[in-house]
Amino acid sequence: MSGILHIAYKLLVNDRSKYAALLVGITFAVFLMIEMTSLFAGILTRSSATVINIGASIWVMDPAIQTVANTIPLPDYALDEVRSIPGVKYAVPLYSGSALLKLPDGVYQAANIIGLDDTSLFGRPALDGGNIEDIYAENAFIAVKDSEFYKLENPKVGAEFELNDHRGVIVGIAHVASSGLFGVPTLYTTYNRALQYLPNTRFTISYLLVEPKSPADVASIKRQVAAAGYLALTKDEFIQKISNFYKYQTGIGTNMLIMTVISFIIGLSISGQTFYTFVIENLEKFGALKAIGAKGCELISMILFQAAFVSLTGYGIGVGLCAFIIWLARLYLPDYAAIITFSNLILAFIMVVVIAAISSYVGVRKVLRIEPFDIFRG
Amino acid sequence: MAKTAIEAVGLNKWFGEGEAKTHAVKDVSFDAYLGEILYVVGPSGSGKTTMLSMISGILRPNSGTVNIEGSDIWSLGTDALAEFRLRKIGFVFQDFHLFPRLTTAENVAIPLILQKRNWDAALKEAHADLEIVGLKDRAQLPPVKLSGGEQQRVAIARAIVSRPDILILDEPTASLDGDTGRNIVKFVREHILTDQRCIVIVTHDSRIYEFADRIVKMEDGKMMKIERTNLENLNAQ
């Protein structure tokens, strides 16, 4: 560290009350910004949990679908139509619905039911216990051990429940990449058993899962599916569509944006005001430095260093605090939906840089305007 | 004959325009020599501080030149002028302007650090200069823990640490009680003044006139040069 920056560092950290106030301001702002955006990221990820967990390349659906949870059944012949499209390697049906389970102790619990194609079991989850072949056994279901698993009373293989007066048996315990958004556990079974156990509309296929022969076929498959009156989206497009729904057609995105902006303003207010006071209190000293022979660029580097140092320190503490709080929350609330993503970190970092830039801009202007002559004049 | 340290020629400075124009310094010329203490005295508003700022490279005159080492300092660019002040002039400000969050030694080392000297080496030299001003045992204290006289000595140590040829003291006794102020200037006379250094002191404290080699009186922006021998006359005015 050069000498002038060493001085700047000492001026900053030795003024403990202001340094603490600056750190609290930045840390608080970073914590709130990352917490808000992490919650949003968690919600968005969980809203697409089924799409992520099933993992199909192309999803064919009714064009009016907005989220994966609100299915609009497709007619059975749609499966044959899609299978006949050139470039389709295979296509299978998927059932996605909800049901009310009666657990052994008599408690009723809502659950997602995913019905996999009987022949291929495409989209099956990885098992932690049991055998996948047992899904063909009578009344067989596989329970997903995610954050909602405990709501099924932590069943073991062989545990039983009731579903629409049908007996259900847990034959496997699976894990998936993402838990769902709505706080209900998930059971996998075969497509046909799902239709047997759950009341259905005239059409029964929730989605058609399509694998193209090659990535180059995706565009033509999408065109031909559209010509047939349906909508084909790649996995990423479907996730984006669901995200857009929650961002723009619910209040969630707007509220999160408002909270993030408020966090930014709070951080800017606290840090800007404190940094301004810090510079004002040292203004005559900076003037004296200027008289002694410090150049304008050296004084600017001192202020920028101070702003950068306190901002990066506050950013680090804020990120650490947020990660700790999320970890702590998950200990007690397993379905706490918050994910710190690189995007969140970069967004918060950019906002912290903006806070530092605005705070230091005021200080730099003040320091550059102070005339050494004013120091003599008193 | 003593070597000229500062040659001020025809300095003029005014502030404002039109009816608000104030002519603070009017056609001031004088020389200051190495090895002498030159006092600039006069009532408040007489232009002492403005003149001091011009000869130390802080305030640009409207006309006139300030020659130091044979060249006009006001022909230098902003950064070159700052570098010139850093290496050639030491400042002791009226209110000391010490950084309260730095130790006494770190305050003293500031000019060396601005000269890009190594931090540890600068502190070592600062300790040596604190010894000169009798404050070696106060090196690790913050300035706020020191008395006014001690803070003045710290400011002097900071001013001399880079071994400047010219030392500028602005009202060095204004913030001190009578005895302390007198002792400080006496200390400067006995320990800081050398054959290779010129000290310019702006003051209106007549109790310290005895330590001057020459005294110059300013009034209404004009300057009268009065030699040391005319001290009694000056006091009588």
List the helices and strands and how they pair.
The complex is a heterodimer of chains A (378) and B (237).
Chain A: H1 3-13, H2 16-47, H3 49-54, E1 58-61, H4 77-83, E2 88-102, E3 108-116, E4 126-130, E5 140-144, E6 160-163, E7 166-175, E8 186-190, H5 191-197, E9 207-212, H6 218-227, E10 231-234, H7 235-248, H8 252-281, H9 283-292, H10 296-332, H11 342-369, H12 372-377
Parallel strand pairs in A: 3-8, 5-7
Antiparallel strand pairs in A: 1-9, 1-10, 2-3, 2-6, 2-9, 4-7, 5-8, 6-7
Helix pairs in contact in A: 1-10, 2-8, 2-10, 2-11, 8-11, 10-11
Chain B: E1 4-15, E2 22-33, E3 37-41, H1 48-55, E4 63-68, E5 71-72, H2 78-88, E6 89-92, H3 104-114, H4 119-132, H5 148-160, E7 166-170, H6 178-192, E8 198-202, E9 214-219, E10 222-227, H7 231-236
Parallel strand pairs in B: 3-8, 3-9, 6-7, 7-8
Antiparallel strand pairs in B: 1-2, 1-4, 4-5, 9-10
Helix pairs in contact in B: 3-4, 3-5, 4-5, 5-6
Structure characterization notes:
In chain A, 52% of the residues lie in helices and 18% in strands. Chain A has helices spanning 3-13, 16-47, 49-54, 77-83, 191-197, 218-227, 235-248, 252-281, 283-292, 296-332, 342-369, 372-377, and strands spanning 58-61, 88-102, 108-116, 126-130, 140-144, 160-163, 166-175, 186-190, 207-212, 231-234. Chain A folds into two domains: 3-46 and 251-377, no CATH class; 75-229, no CATH class. Chain A contains twelve helices and ten strands. Chain B is α/β, with parallel strands linked by helices and 237 residues long. In chain B, 33% of the residues lie in helices and 27% in strands. Chain B has one domain: 3-Layer(aba) Sandwich (Rossmann fold). Chain B has seven helices and ten strands. Chain B has helices spanning 48-55, 78-88, 104-114, 119-132, 148-160, 178-192, 231-236, and strands at 4-15, 22-33, 37-41, 63-68, 71-72, 89-92, 166-170, 198-202, 214-219, 222-227. Chains A and B meet through α1, α9 and α12 of A and α1, α2 and α3 of B.
